[in-house]
Amino acid sequence: MLRSPLVGLLLASVIGPAAVAQDRIAAAGPALAPCDVRRLPPIVPSPMPGEMVRPAAAGVVAQPPPEAASAEAFLSRPQPQAEPEPEPTPWEGSFELGLDGSSGNSETFNFRFGFDAQRKTGRNVLDLDLDYRKTSSEDVETANRALLDWRYERLFEASPWTTFLHGTLDYDEFKTFDMRITTDIGVGRKLIDTKRTEFAGRLGTGFSREIGGPDDVWVPEAVFGLEFKHKLTDRQKIAFSTEYTPDMASFDDFRMKSRASWEVLIDEEMNLSLKLSVLDRYDSTPNGAESNDLDYSAVLLWKF
Q1: Which CATH fold would you assign to the domain 101-303?
Q2: How high does pLDDT run on average in the chain?
Q3: What does the pLDDT read at residue 15?
């Protein structure tokens, strides 16, 4: 079959450019070869809060969202342990110091020192108290005395009752004895026991001895005591105590010791307070000395 010149011209215009293009691709070689396209794994969107998560299709491993993996890694990482707080010490106490004097027409000197410590636990209380005073006038010593008072008290859980062991050492240069020793034992009861107020009574028996005095023998005694403490404010508190110790053979022979004090905090950072106190000691058998000794003072108090 013969083709007309018009048909041949049309075929040449279509086939000719395609053959030329194929020849050019073959001449270029691998540079224009088709690329090897790799398929990336599908991106799984993170579920919104409250959205239901559909189960993964068979054969497909579900991957956790990136933020969930990072949170899990953070929680599984060992966390630093907080250091335990140190246990509070059962001890507390204070030092007190007073000093005054004058020079000129009159020469006076007054020195006072005190120490108080307490160790308190859930089972017992140990109290230590030391008072020392020395005074002089016109270079003549008028007072030189010291008093050490200690008490061990046994507490009972959920009970207001206590038992105690108590003793004192009393030195006074102007008394007829060198030193008086007392020791007693008994029971006590907490009449009021709150955060601000403490009031207790005590009853017991013991012995006393005035070493180096006219009556240098052991004397049996009864003991009756009261103790009161009250916190007025966060910076002020008051305290009062009294103890009556008669001779068990004759209640007309007795000693009585009373103490009252008021403390006010003046420097919280340094634990520094001002203390006003009065101590009265009465002895019905002074053996030629004064029956009553009254000490009063205003001192600075440092607590630890």
Answers
A1: Porin (2.40.160)
A2: 82
A3: 52
